[in-house]
Amino acid sequence: MVSTALFLLAAAAGSARFAKAATPDEWRSRSIYQVLTDRFARGDGSPDAPCDTGARKYCGGNYRGLISQLDYIQGMGFDSVWISPITKQFEDDWNGAPYHGYWQTDLYALNEHFGTEEDLRALADELHARGMFLMVDVVINHNGWPGDAASIDYSQFNPFNSSDYYHPPCEINYDDQTSVEQCWLYTGANALPDLKTEDPHVSQVHNDWIADLVSKYSIDGLRIDTTKHVDKPAIGSFNDAAGVYAVGEVYHGDPAYTCPYQDWVDGVLNFPVYYPLIDAFKSPSGTMWSLVDNINKVFQTCNDPRLLGTFSENHDIPRFASYTQDLALAKNVLAFTILFDGIPIVYAGQEQQYSGDSDPYNREALWLSGFNTDAPLYKHIAACNRIRSHAVSNDDAYITTPTDIKYSDDHTLALVKGAVTTVLTNAGANAGETTVTVEATGYASGEQVTDVLSCESIAASDGGRLSVTLNQGLPRVFFPTDALAGSGLCEN
Ligand code: ABC
Ligand code: CA
């Protein structure tokens, strides 16, 4: 009894700080929708407010707008939202404004363009009321300054208000890791003064800050910007101090470079799979071979491949539709993104087939789509997310089961993960009918399986063999027909 009472007291005292902290394990089954806060939804609802991406200025999106469009996000099956960095930025905009949030000047104040403390708390509350998680982007590598390196007045920054806290300016040599960590990402027009994160004082300030921030706004997870530009021990202690799942932005396509970061941070964005994924699917002349190769390397090299973030677009890289308008190819790439191992991340606008290429044109305002829930990719994403969460609720082991590549050729890839068999093709929408045989799917001989994208059913034959017809370049996602009840997919 005494110990129970003590436990309850301790739990009550600790609840304010730790109750909502979400662990890596709690994130495994999640599916993330990434928004640039400024570009997703406006609180005043003005549906026609223009947003000129080329101008690189604020367009008026904010937390209140985001709250008002959570049905749209949830309707696609997402249960987590990654928002832009929340901290105060400089206000000058002669060379582009910090509408993206990566040019902070003050760790302890909010960027008021996005809303007040109450608005941000209201966003966290509304997400939690829906069973959703809040992921916040954070920057510990640098601050932002509206001028070049020589013009910086360090006293303007809070708390790192002297040049002593920063590395001296230098251009990064990407072949030298010390330079990657200690030189500046940009020294020109909008310089990014690079913090001495290896200094124990700087690191301690960051760690105290993040522990408080996570608690103050009930944050469930972090995306750590510029992870490869920060020394690894500082990343490790920062993730520990945060006490929630963090995914690091290690912007590098080589698994041998990217995977070792998992010794220091819970997860990393899966750049090694991103590059060959796009190459495989952006046109019918792509092939699957480097994708298969990098999947195998990631499985061999990363400590926990199921904690990586899988993505096919973000705000730094060309949108998929900038390569091709082919809807069948877009559906294949999204099916992979959501049904491959790891935590899927879809960047707002992908569901509306936005086609901006590089920064800043890939940052289109979502409200200009009218939040169209009839868009074909909106419905496609919803089906993929739905079968994934159904597979999770049917089988505890699904999420930690590695994907098995059961078949691949130049144009086709068949993935088996638990009860889900995903068959992908880069043949494109103009392709005719072909048949591919996938062996050893794990289905029983004679078992009926349904493609949840078309609702067509077929039976597995001996040894779980599936004879899969592909037509018009569309992906197929099979699940045992008898086990579909409750999924909301193909149930009648
Ligand atoms: C602005 C303009 C740009 C202009 C630039 C000078 O200023 O919009 O048009 O070119 C923020 C803003 C940006 C802004 C920058 C700089 O700040 O969002 O709009 O650009 O002021 C993160 C964020 C990103 C953010 C920052 C800065 C960092 O996601 O949105 O940018 O806080 C590097 C960093 C990476 C960073 C990215 C933008 O730059 O590592 O953290 N992203 C190579 C390098 C990478 C490099 C990448 C792109 O190029 O290795 O380190 O990323 O420059 C593969 C290789 C990769 C290789 C790629 C290209 O090819 O394996 O290693 O990446 O095969
Ligand atoms: Ca650095």
Automatic annotation (TrEMBL):
<keyword id="KW-1015">Disulfide bond</keyword>
<feature type="binding site">
    <location>
        <position position="229"/>
    </location>
    <ligand>
        <name>Ca(2+)</name>
    </ligand>
</feature>
<dbReference type="InterPro" id="IPR015340">
    <property type="entry name" value="A_amylase_C_dom"/>
</dbReference>
<feature type="domain" description="Glycosyl hydrolase family 13 catalytic">
    <location>
        <begin position="34"/>
        <end position="388"/>
    </location>
</feature>
<feature type="binding site">
    <location>
        <position position="249"/>
    </location>
    <ligand>
        <name>Ca(2+) 2</name>
    </ligand>
</feature>
<comment type="similarity">
    <text>Belongs to the glycosyl hydrolase 13 family.</text>
</comment>
<feature type="disulfide bond">
    <location>
        <begin position="170"/>
        <end position="183"/>
    </location>
</feature>
<dbReference type="GO" id="GO:0004556">
    <property type="term" value="F:alpha-amylase activity"/>
</dbReference>
<feature type="binding site">
    <location>
        <position position="103"/>
    </location>
    <ligand>
        <name>substrate</name>
    </ligand>
</feature>
<feature type="binding site">
    <location>
        <position position="181"/>
    </location>
    <ligand>
        <name>Ca(2+) 1</name>
    </ligand>
</feature>
<keyword id="KW-0119">Carbohydrate metabolism</keyword>
<feature type="binding site">
    <location>
        <position position="194"/>
    </location>
    <ligand>
        <name>Ca(2+)</name>
    </ligand>
</feature>
<keyword id="KW-0378">Hydrolase</keyword>
<feature type="disulfide bond">
    <location>
        <begin position="455"/>
        <end position="490"/>
    </location>
</feature>
<keyword id="KW-0106">Calcium</keyword>
<feature type="binding site">
    <location>
        <position position="142"/>
    </location>
    <ligand>
        <name>substrate</name>
    </ligand>
</feature>
<feature type="site" description="Transition state stabilizer">
    <location>
        <position position="316"/>
    </location>
</feature>
<feature type="disulfide bond">
    <location>
        <begin position="259"/>
        <end position="302"/>
    </location>
</feature>
<dbReference type="InterPro" id="IPR013780">
    <property type="entry name" value="Glyco_hydro_b"/>
</dbReference>
<dbReference type="InterPro" id="IPR017853">
    <property type="entry name" value="GH"/>
</dbReference>
<keyword id="KW-0326">Glycosidase</keyword>
<keyword id="KW-0479">Metal-binding</keyword>
<feature type="binding site">
    <location>
        <position position="363"/>
    </location>
    <ligand>
        <name>substrate</name>
    </ligand>
</feature>
<feature type="active site" description="Nucleophile">
    <location>
        <position position="225"/>
    </location>
</feature>
<protein>
    <recommendedName>
        <fullName>alpha-amylase</fullName>
        <ecNumber>3.2.1.1</ecNumber>
    </recommendedName>
</protein>
<feature type="binding site">
    <location>
        <position position="141"/>
    </location>
    <ligand>
        <name>Ca(2+)</name>
    </ligand>
</feature>
<feature type="active site" description="Proton donor">
    <location>
        <position position="249"/>
    </location>
</feature>
<feature type="signal peptide">
    <location>
        <begin position="1"/>
        <end position="21"/>
    </location>
</feature>
<feature type="binding site">
    <location>
        <position position="253"/>
    </location>
    <ligand>
        <name>substrate</name>
    </ligand>
</feature>
<dbReference type="Pfam" id="PF00128">
    <property type="entry name" value="Alpha-amylase"/>
</dbReference>
<feature type="glycosylation site" description="N-linked (GlcNAc...) asparagine">
    <location>
        <position position="161"/>
    </location>
</feature>
<dbReference type="GO" id="GO:0005509">
    <property type="term" value="F:calcium ion binding"/>
</dbReference>
<feature type="binding site">
    <location>
        <position position="141"/>
    </location>
    <ligand>
        <name>Ca(2+) 1</name>
    </ligand>
</feature>
<feature type="binding site">
    <location>
        <position position="194"/>
    </location>
    <ligand>
        <name>Ca(2+) 1</name>
    </ligand>
</feature>
<feature type="binding site">
    <location>
        <position position="316"/>
    </location>
    <ligand>
        <name>substrate</name>
    </ligand>
</feature>
<dbReference type="InterPro" id="IPR013777">
    <property type="entry name" value="A-amylase-like"/>
</dbReference>
<feature type="binding site">
    <location>
        <position position="225"/>
    </location>
    <ligand>
        <name>Ca(2+) 2</name>
    </ligand>
</feature>
<keyword id="KW-0732">Signal</keyword>
<dbReference type="GO" id="GO:0016052">
    <property type="term" value="P:carbohydrate catabolic process"/>
</dbReference>
<dbReference type="Pfam" id="PF09260">
    <property type="entry name" value="A_amylase_dom_C"/>
</dbReference>
<keyword id="KW-0325">Glycoprotein</keyword>
<feature type="binding site">
    <location>
        <position position="229"/>
    </location>
    <ligand>
        <name>Ca(2+) 1</name>
    </ligand>
</feature>
